[in-house]
Amino acid sequence: MPTTIEKDKILSLLEVIQNGIVEENGVTNLNLDYAKEIGLSNKEINNLQQALIETSANDLNEIESESKIFEKEILK
């Protein structure tokens, strides 16, 4: 089981995946202000942005869905 700090960081990342990724004009973007507000570091934000570059809308929907399941498991 992750430590509390790791658990909090994972939950923050899941929160950003679920609520901080927006699609505008067919382009998937990360809401940078939201990601920073949630507590992601610049390095984490950059890594997430790079991952989004090649992520299709269908894949993103699946990732968001799976992240909700993962979040429930962590919170148990």
Folded structure, characterized:
The protein is mainly alpha-helical. Helices cover about 70% and strands about 10% of the residues. It is built from 4 helices and 2 strands. It has helices at about 5-20, 30-40, 40-55, 55-75, and strands at about 20-25, 25-30. A two-stranded antiparallel ribbon has the order 1-2. A hairpin with a 2-residue loop joins strand 1 and strand 2 (about 25-30). The longest helix is centred in the last third of the chain and has 19 residues, at about 55-75. The radius of gyration is 12 Å and the shape is globular. The termini are close together.
For the biggest sheet, the summary is: 2 strands, antiparallel
Proportion of helical residues: over 70%
What's the N-to-C terminus distance?
11 Å
Total of helices: 4
Using only C-alpha atoms, the radius of gyration works out to 12 Å
Unreliable stretches (pLDDT < 50, length at least 5) are none
Note the beta-strand portion. Answer: 5-15%
